[in-house]
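Re: that chain you flagged

S.,

Sorry for the slow reply, it's been a week of failed gels. I finally had a moment to sit down with the sequence you sent. For the record, here it is as I used it:
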Amino acid sequence: MDALFDLFSSLVNVLWSLLDVVVNLLRVILPWLPLLGWVGFWIFAVNWAKAFPILRRGGFIGVLLLMFVAVLVWAAVAPPDNGKHLMLGLSVDNHSGKFIYVTMLTCIALLCGSAQLSGSFGRLGEFPEEPAADDDVHAHNDQGHGHDDDHGGHDHGHDIAHAH
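Prediction finished late last night. Pasting the structure tokens below so you have them in one place:
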């Protein structure tokens, strides 16, 4: 009977230890969760095969303007406690610190795009081609229906209305 009690006690200890591991893992991951969400979004939710050509054609100007607005708003809304950011042992003023943060987040997003385009994520980073539904509908309507102005003497709109 003592062996069964020892086994049960050992199982309870294992479960408590696993719970401690999960709690400590959450305590480590929780502060990094926003950054992990940021990376996950830019890797798995953005089709970089379509985004990079837009950026190359001048879309980067919009990104730079959004970065500038983000720095101004973030600096106004959330100034640091003592008015300075401490980065790598340096004391940086509010706007410069926010500019560094926003630039780092933008670089991380662009690196995620580069990793997705390189094929590092395999099928997880692929997006299926969207069918051109509008083009198919217009092409189908224009083929072989003979769109004449008189429609053979029939006014289809009135035929439907008078059918009832």
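What I noticed first: Helices lie at 2-29, 33-44, 48-77, 94-118, 133-142, 156-162.

Talk soon,
D.
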